[in-house]
Amino acid sequence: MDIMAKTEYDSIKIRIKQKMYEITIPKGYHLNSYSSIEEQEYVFSYPDSSCIYIGDFFYNRNESNIKLLGDSIYNLRYQNIPLVKETNAIIGKEIIPLRPDTLELMGVQNNQLIWKDIVMDNVNVGYYNVPILKVGIFNRALFSVKKISCD
Questions:
Q1: Pairing between strand 114-120 and 9-16?
Q2: Are 54 and 23 in contact (CB under 8 A)?
Q3: Are 28 and 46 within 8 A, CB to CB?
Q4: What's the rounded Cα separation, in Å, for the pair 144 and 28?
Q5: Quick one: which of 18, 30, 34, 36 is 20 to 30 A from 122 by CA?
């Protein structure tokens, strides 16, 4: 039996800016929640140092990994969308391309562990410090995210 078939999962409901989301993640985590006046982030940490995060922090836990992909990718990922829209409107044409609603980035860290970051609208979900053998398990978690309600 492979590692994915043996893995047990928890379905977690979380609130980010008046919206409820559900994510199904591997059991065995320790949950930390971080917030500021305008931002919220949940980090699910595992004993092997791997982590899953979900939230709306502008700069997330994979920022340093994303920076290593180069300035153009970094600038697209952390784009100030309202400012770009305003700039394009002033110019009268789309001179600066807008970041798509969903952007997925992935790479290998210096320690040879895997990271992934997905931005969907204004919600970030990702992981880091994941061994290659567990990437399928952690991908399953990221792709399980769904919005379940709005207040």
A1: unpaired
A2: yes
A3: yes
A4: 18
A5: 30
pLDDT for 79-118, tens place per residue?
A: 888 888 899 899 988 888 888 889 999 999 999 999 999 9
Quote the pLDDT of residue 101. Answer: 87
Q: What are the domain boundaries of the chain?
A: 3-150
Contact by Cβ (8 Å): 82, 90: no
pLDDT tens digits, one per residue of 62-76: 999 999 999 899 898
Residue 5, Ramachandran bin (φ over 0: left; ψ between -120 and 50: alpha; else beta): alpha
> Which two tokens mark 48?
């092997």
CA 144 to chain centre: 12
Structure tokens at 145: 């995210």
Question: Residue 53: what are its φ and ψ, rounded to 5°?
Answer: -130, 150
Give the C-alpha distances (Å, rounded to integers) separating 125 from 49, 57, 87, 128, 133: 17, 10, 28, 11, 20
- CA 61 to chain CA centroid, nearest Å: 8
